[in-house]
Design a protein that fits this description.
The protein is mainly beta. The chain has 5 helices and 21 strands. It folds into 2 domains: about 220 residues, Jelly Rolls (Sandwich); about 80 residues, Jelly Rolls (Sandwich). The strands form 4 sheets. Strands 1, 4, 14, 15, 16, 17, 18, 19, 20 and 21 form a 10-stranded antiparallel beta sheet that branches. A hairpin with a 2-residue loop joins strand 14 and strand 15. Bound molecules: zinc ion (ZN). Zinc ion binds next to loops.
Amino acid sequence: MAVFKLEPAFKDYIWGGTRLRDDFKKKCDFDKIAESWELSCHKDGPSTIANGEYKGLTLAEYIEKAGKSVLGTDCEKFENFPILIKLIDAKDNLSVQVHPDNDYAQRVEGEYGKTEMWYIVDCDEGATLLYGFKDTISKDEFAKRIADNTLLEVTNAVPVKKGDVFFIQAGTLHAIGKGILIAEIQQNSNTTYRIYDYGRVGKDGKPRELHVDKAKDVTDLCPAKSYPETPVEKYDGYTSKLLSSCDYFTTYAVDVNTKAEFDADEKSFLSLLILEGECTISADDSVSAKMGDSIFIPAGTGKVTVDGKCKAILTKV
Ligand code: ZN
């Protein structure tokens, strides 16, 4: 067993910025870096092991070699690796979009649906994102407003600040607004139905594809559900706050002041995404980690200590 540091895959979508290189010191030559896929077994952007005896293998190849037990018993119910964790730098608005649930996605796309969670790592003053509708609307009104480009009159724009959390159940209409840097924890899926793209063109000079019919099938035409905020739990050397818990992942915001201790038990692997500061993460061996680093710890590793001063997102299944 080991503590693995992961190298991400990068995406240069048109709305991306340069903060993942400038601030998070990611090694990527793309002009714009929209996303880094920090914990990924998805074929569209696998992450790779950066240290130890499995260095150079993709995370998926390592799991294949080491056996599925490194994912933990709670992962046995999933045929594929269940989650995908990204950093997203939205210099410009993302398209207004929706993701299908498992039933629809598996039937129509042959992969998982996508329920996701956003943690606002940083944002510009006045930044907003789009989250569901202001009020419930009819299917006819939805279709009409897509057709005549007035959808944004009925969608819910939410001002955001650092540390805010949004849970986006599959079917919830959403868009990340410009000037927001997000850590996204989602189901392992790359299925997105775009409804509105601000009239932009892609790299080839043509408007990006919209998927209006499928979006009409899967969009919940109502306000997004609100979730109560959970308390900050204080421990010796660190604090922890539950951000979300669903069928696919459980995430915590962890703020380490001096030292923290976690248990990578038999049930699930642990993922740590370091958002600020520096630390040393130790189990059988240890690695140093800093802002932007993604760490994978196999299930059954046991006690894991984090020494240093850092903020991180801790995810397990
Ligand atoms: Zn999304």
